[in-house]
Amino acid sequence: MSPPPLPMVHGRASKYLDRHFNRQAMKILPGEFYATTEDEVIVTVLGSCVAACLLDPIAMVGGMNHFMLPMKQGDRDPDLFYAARYGAAAMEYLINNLLHLGAQRDRLVAKAFGGGKVMRGMSTDIGGQNIEFVRRYLKNEGIPLWNEDLGGSFPRKVYFFPHTGQVLVKRIEHTHNDTILDRDLSYFREVGQVPDEGDVELFR
């Protein structure tokens, strides 16, 4: 059975006026998602995480998630509200909310982004696992993957326009600070997926 829909705005997602695009924008963080029928833009910044952008181009309903890991391990994060940190739940929550807003499942199409290898010293390639998961999930669910920008060794900033399906991606190949990398490291430590700080090297 699929998980029930959560609110369209999940977690600490925040809306602001993007003056460059002259429209409302929703910024989402790891473990969050947003579905909408409005002509607005959804924004996120990705390191090792992956964001799936889903769209029903006929109903003009779309949304984005931002997940950290493919699957929940053990007994961590028992609260349903935090399940969207993990790809399996993040995809289902987003799809259910899109259907609730009027999308039809057989019309959904996808674009996927992120999964950068931005940290060394990891016992596993989390970005690679996220990439493998999102491709496999979409294939199994029969949702066409229209476009992707996955992998590499750099973070990305993604802008998704759900009314048109347009996506703008900025590859952050030179960062002025470690905000993105430190954030990823903090989140992965929280779910027990990274070694101690001395064993992790961040790409600069």
Task: Tell me what you see in this structure.
The model is unreliable at 3-8 and 194-204 (pLDDT under 50). The protein is of the alpha+beta class and 204 residues long. The chain has one domain (14-202): 2-Layer Sandwich (60s Ribosomal Protein L30, Chain: A). The protein has 3 helices and 12 strands, in the order ββββββαββαβββαβ. The strands form 3 sheets. A 5-stranded mixed sheet has the order 1-2-4-10-11, with no helix packed on it. The N and C termini lie far apart (43 Å). It is globular.
State the main characteristics:
204 residues; 12 strands; globular; alpha+beta; 60s Ribosomal Protein L30, Chain: A; 3 helices; five-stranded mixed sheet; single chain
Number of strands: 12
Helical percent range? 10-25%
Number of helices: 3
In N-to-C order, the SSE pattern is EEEEEEHEEHEEEHE
Tally of individual domains: 1
User: Which architecture per CATH?
Assistant: 2-Layer Sandwich
Strand order of the largest sheet: 1-2-4-10-11
Shape: globular
How much of the sequence lies in strands comes to 25-35%
- Using the coordinates shown, work out and report the CATH topology: 60s Ribosomal Protein L30, Chain: A
Summed over residues and divided by their number, the pLDDT gives a mean of 81
CATH uppermost class? Alpha Beta
Biggest sheet record: 5 strands, mixed
Category from helices, strands and their pairing: alpha+beta
Our Rg estimate from Cα atoms comes to 16 Å
N- and C-termini, Cα separation: 43 Å
Low-confidence stretches: 3-8, 194-204
